[in-house]
């Protein structure tokens, strides 16, 4: 799972929470979902301001990223940890040190009838420095995102490129029976 830092304004200050349960839910209009435990301080700010940010930290930020998940904004002021900037929504704090930032307007909250809730946001704007892009598209190798392994509680980097999505599977279709036989061994 990708490791993100979700930002929200809480009690007039930026607050950031480490979140791994995050993903795109729709391409047009672009929407993203973040799942947070109901006890988190960040939830209050998302509800109050109807917006939040999703910031993608790079591997060199692993310690500070983990720290933001260890301490609660209820007890620790996280507003000075990063250089914060704002975009169109004015109340969705974003982290300048992160290679990619998504500014999101809250669309819905799903109560999972347990300890968590899902915040769905429409991505209003995305931000990335040119050095993290290739042909105006975020470049995974340049961003070097942090991947979280849930069941052994470890952070990992991204490995090698495996193939082009919606394309590499055509190789299987062309030689499917032989490849299936190889995979069944």
Automatic annotation (TrEMBL):
Its cofactor is FMN. Residues 1-134 form the Flavin reductase like domain. Keywords: Flavoprotein. It comes from the Archaea. GO terms for molecular function: FMN binding. Signal peptide: none annotated. Belongs to the flavoredoxin family. This is Putative NADPH-flavin oxidoreductase. It comes from Methanosarcina vacuolata Z-761.
């Amino acid at each position: 799972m990708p490791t993100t830092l979700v930002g929200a304004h809480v009690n007039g200050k930026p607050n950031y929470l480490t979140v791994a349960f995050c993903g795109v839910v729709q391409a047009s209009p672009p929407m993203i979902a973040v799942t947070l435990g109901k006890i988190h301080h960040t939830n209050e700010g998302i509800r109050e301001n109807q917006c939040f940010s999703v910031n993608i930290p790079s591997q060199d930020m692993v310690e500070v990223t983990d720290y933001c998940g260890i301490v609660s904004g209820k007890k620790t002021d996280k507003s000075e940890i990063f250089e914060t900037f704002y975009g169109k929504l004015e109340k969705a704090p974003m982290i300048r040190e992160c290679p990619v930032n998504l500014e999101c307007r809250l669309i819905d909250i799903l109560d999972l009838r347990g300890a968590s809730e899902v915040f769905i946001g429409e991505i209003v704007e995305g931000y990335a420095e040119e050095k993290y892009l290739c042909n105006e598209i975020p470049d995974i190798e340049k961003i070097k995102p942090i991947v979280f392994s849930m069941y052994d509680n470890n952070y990992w980097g991204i490995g090698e490129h495996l193939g082009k999505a919606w394309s590499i599977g055509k190789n299987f279709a062309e030689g499917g029976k032989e490849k299936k036989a190889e995979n069944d061994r």
